[in-house]
Amino acid sequence: QVQLVESGGGLVQPGGSLRLSCAASGSIVSINAMGWYRQTPGKQRELVAAITTGGNTNYADSVKGRFTISRDNAKNTVYLYLQMNSLKPEDTDVYYCMRRHWNGMHYWGKGTLVTVSS
Length: 118
Prior knowledge:
Helices cover 0% and strands 57% of the residues. The strands form two sheets. Strands 2, 4, 5, 6, 9, 10 and 11 form a seven-stranded mixed sheet that branches. It has a four-stranded antiparallel sheet with strand order 1-3-8-7, with no helix packed on it. Strand 5 (46-52) and strand 6 form a beta hairpin. It has 118 residues and is mainly beta. The protein contains no helices and eleven strands. The model has no long low-confidence stretch (mean pLDDT 95).
């Protein structure tokens, strides 16, 4: 069973840091890329950062230099991380973990809320 479980969201002051985590289990050999997206209600979900199985990364211009995506492979689970530094109020959003399989299928986590506010 394909699963994605996010954690690490919360409230942080502007300029602060948070690290999001995502545990992907089930059919992990099918994964060819994973990523973090964010979405404000009423707006389109947007890419924050992505990483392929080969380690290639891609970032939204708005987070370059502040966010870092990384992954660790365990026996039956792939862990995806998003280190977020120098957070700004405009980074407030629900963040979703995504896994993409070699057959083109995408799967999503339930999301974790990040609030940047003083």
